[in-house]
Model the fold of this input.
Amino acid sequence: MRPAPLVTFKTEAELCAAFIAEAERGGIYRCYPECCGWDVLAVRVADGLQIGIEAKLKLNSLVVEQAIEERPSFYPGGRGDRGPDFRAVLVPEFGGNFSPTICGYLGITIIRIVHEERGIGSRRTITGEILPTLPGMKSHRYGSLPDSWHDCCPMRREILPDYVPDSQAGTPCPITLTDWKIAAIKMAILLKRRVVTRSDFQALKIDHRRWLPSVMGWMAPADGRGRGWVAGPGLPDFAKQHPRNYAEIEAAADDWMPKPSELAPIQMDLGLAPLSPAIDGAPRSKKTENADA
Done:
């Protein structure tokens, strides 16, 4: 009979958290949770090598389908033209209804977290280890076909965000940190500091139309007609969604904040000629009226 595992995972989030803790130990890898469509995107710090990881409590066809390489696009720049160097599924153990051998033929590595009990009495500790060892880490075990790493040789690697997401990996319907979200956080910070204009949206490369008072109500008109916008009642609480990332972006405001535009006062006098039967005090003749007609 197989011994009961020392650590059991009740949710995929717990499994992902344990993996991230072990993978980042020693600083060889940096993990991006819920990034580029992966539960965890592990990036080797030294050279940028990427491992795309999908997590499930049981090895099944669904998680394999999520991790498998997409069909190449006929158009350059398509989703199928980029991906991580290696693809893997993270499960607590091999048990499941999908063959580990088939995963190897599909170029997908099965990774697990094995916990071992060491020491005696009060000195007893439980340590974790990722199997198979991630590329570049020292390995003390022999592997087999399912434990091998298969280089996918992508045309392009996944495009990483400027900040490591503070999202929780493995949660259903996660709140992800995308390039749009980073720009939106910058705009929310800017709205709380001063009046913004279309030039600010252009500088941050984000569309202003979604933010308008007549659409989502994320902004409200500033005092004075045509003077821009301030934060509106419907502005999302991005600080609550991404507390760590929000603080990081706000701390770097001096590096990304656009300069305010100088708007001249709105002139309501459009300079139109008055509707008068005379020009410069002289009566209009029928010949002039006919010519104007």
